[in-house]
Design brief:
The complex is a heterodimer of chains A (413) and B (170).
Chain A lengths: L6 H15 L4 H38 L16 H10 L10 H18 L17 H22 L3 H32 L4 H6 L5 H4 L1 H15 L10 H4 L9 H25 L13 H25 L5 H33 L10 H25 L23 H4 L1
Helix pairs in contact in A: 1-2, 2-11, 2-12, 3-11, 4-5, 4-11, 5-6, 6-9, 6-13, 9-11, 9-13, 11-12, 13-14
Chain B lengths: L2 H22 L3 H21 L3 H26 L14 H20 L17 H10 L5 H22 L5
Helix pairs in contact in B: 1-2, 2-3
Classes of the chains: A mainly alpha (413), B mainly alpha (170).
């Protein structure tokens, strides 16, 4: 094993052998290495946020024709550090009547729920946190814990606006979990596995080509899970002050803030892993460390789209948001899941009948699935067209409020 | 003691304490939170038994759906922060009697059970477990009937919920 091509496993092996040489048993060494790995992934996640907060503020600024942060360091890259110091030194305020335990538990839960996702993301072919065989389900389970954090924050603050924010959070996060899970099942069907790393291994043709609808549904519903614009109804400033995080101050608010930014980056990483081939790329199998680079290039491309959508889209109304989920995303996801299963099964029944080279089969399979996706899109568009607004209904005649007074008779004559 | 035994005992204590707190806690939401901890402890036991699938399903279904539904319902129906009603009613002795009898029955069965001393058989390879489970659920000579019955029950429950919640069109 070479240091340059696979540094993480090289160091882990070296450290493991060192500890074994000190007379520890293999199980203790495994536990220590697991804890070090978990710690490193956590630190990595948090330090990534320092960068993405700057990136997002800069993009935000440029799109709104401002400069964005530009004082601390070159192009303002170190702007986040003074902000961190500011937030560390702020006072913690606990409102009267707040439920102390739940109030303090909520920010921890909502950050840890996001960090836990990173445990199953494969950074490269050999650099995997834990390759659990139910990785996809694990992602869903962890999302549920995040929802719990938001509900607790809203309830324990003893504040009407916080509680309203929590109610909206439940309506939004739990209902958008349904199309997300259904869309996640499509890669599971195509890759014949629930482990995240085996799904990446199965993507000799990226799943975004095989099933673009699933990728879009997953992307949209996980955008809604993050609770950012255009889905930021849980903290809509104009209606709810700041939603569930109204009463939080100092580092506790900072944890929600970090959790939100990390969540946005995490869903980009998940989209890149599950639909854009993850660490796959040229020479990624020979030089594993190159896989990390490929993954992060793809992740940042997706993250750029996430930020762009956040900046440029207006907020949805709550009924629009729920209608979009229950009347559009969920039926489309269900139909897509069923037809993907049928098409894939039929494909593998009928393909041995044709004499085709083995290397071509994944591409033909991708073509068949792509064709099915295009047909579903066309049918959906046709159905949507029948719901379009052809004419606006006239409710009442326009009634001018201010009418110019009749000129006096003396003027006319 | 091995590491696994120490972890087992710690998780057992936490689960039991949380389980007792579910019924002794005065605040309804606190009870729901303790319930989440209890269910999480049970999920950890599934991990100890090498049943990762069940552990994750336990977290999704019980914590992600049912416990959140409990919290949500009690947030909507009760006075939110100061909900401290009486914990028992006049039938408390009947409940205590039934649960004691049940506990005694379980103990009686476990004392005579041979399973404690025999070690569990080795499982098949871990990657094939889920597909084996899936095939077992839909094969007619194994669990097809209970699986379909559960599906019908769930669909009926869903239709009922929609009917109850739906607007009455007059």
């Amino acid at each position: 094993m070479n240091f340059l091509s696979d540094p993480v496993n090289f160091i882990a092996n070296w450290l493991g052998n060192l500890l074994l040489g000190w007379g520890m048993s293999q199980s203790v060494v495994n536990v220590i290495l697991t804890f070090i790995g978990a710690f490193l992934v956590g630190v990595f996640g948090f330090s990534l946020v320092i960068f993405t907060i700057w990136l997002e503020r800069k993009l935000y600024g440029r799109i709104q024709d401002r400069l964005g942060p530009n004082r601390v360091g070159p192009w303002g890259v170190f702007q986040t550090f003074p902000d961190m110091i500011k937030i560390f030194t702020k006072e913690y305020i606990t409102p009267i009547g707040a439920d102390k335990v739940a109030y303090n538990l909520a920010p921890i839960l909502s950050v840890s729920a996001v960090l836990l996702v990173w445990a199953v993301i494969p950074f490269a072919q050999t650099i995997v946190g834990t390759d659990v065989n139910v990785g996809v389900l694990y992602l869903v389970a962890v999302g549920g814990i995040g929802a719990l954090g938001i509900i607790l924050a809203g309830w324990s603050s003893n504040n009407k606006y916080s509680l309203l924010g929590a109610f909206r959070a439940v309506a939004q996060i739990i209902s958008y979990e349904i199309p997300m899970v259904l869309a996640l099942l499509v890669p599971v069907l195509l890759g014949r596995s629930m482990g995240v790393n085996s799904l990446v291994n199965a993507q000799s043709v990226w799943f975004v080509i095989m099933s673009p609808i699933a990728a879009l549904i997953f992307f949209t519903s996980s955008m809604a899970e993050t609770g950012r614009a255009p889905f930021d109804l849980l903290e809509a400033e104009s209606e709810l002050v700041a939603g569930y995080q109204t009463e939080y101050s100092g580092l506790k608010f900072g944890m929600f803030y970090v959790g939100e930014f990390l969540h946005a980056f995490t869903i980009s990483a998940l989209t890149a892993t599950l639909f854009l081939g993850g660490w796959r790329g040229p020479w990624a199998e020979q030089i594993p460390i190159l896989g990390v680079a490929w993954l992060f290039i793809k992740t940042f491309i997706v993250y750029f789209v996430v930020v762009l959508i956040r900046i440029s889209m207006p907020r949805l109304r709550i009924d629009q948001m729920l209608n979009f989920n229950w009347k559009f995303l969920t039926p489309v996801a269900l139909i897509l899941l069923i037809s993907t299963a049928i098409v894939d099964k039929l494909f593998f029944i009928y393909i041995p009948g044709f004499q085709i080279m083995d290397s071509l089969i994944p591409w033909i399979r991708a073509g068949v699935h792509l064709l099915m996706n295009i047909i579903i899109v066309l049918i959906t568009v046709q159905i949507l067209k029948s719901y379009r607004i052809t004419a606006s209904r006239v409710v009442a005649q326009p009634r001018p409020v201010a009418v110019a007074p009749e000129p006096p008779a003396s003027v006319i004559s | 003691m091995t590491l696994e035994q120490i972890a087992f005992i710690i998780v057992a204590i936490v689960t039991l304490v949380a389980g007792i707190s579910v019924v002794t806690s005065r605040n309804l939401i606190h009870s729901a939170l303790w319930l989440i901890l209890t269910l999480f402890g049970i999920a950890i036991y599934y991990v100890f038994l090498n049943a990762g699938f069940f552990a994750v399903i336990q977290v999704i279904v019980y914590i992600g759906a049912i416990a959140i539904l409990f919290i949500f319902a009690s947030m909507l129906t009760r006075r939110v922060m100061q909900d401290t009603g009486p914990q028992t009613n006049s039938n408390w002795w009947l409940g205590a009697l039934i649960s004691l009898l049940l506990f005694a029955g379980i103990i009686l069965i476990f004392v005579n059970w041979q399973g404690f001393t025999t070690s569990a058989p080795d499982l098949a390879n871990s990657s094939g477990q889920i597909s084996q489970l899936g095939l077992a659920l839909v094969s007619p000579d194994q669990y097809l009937l209970p699986f379909e019955l559960a599906s019908i029950l769930l669909v009926a429950g869903m239709i009922g919920a929609i009917f109850v919640a739906g607007e009455k069109k007059q």
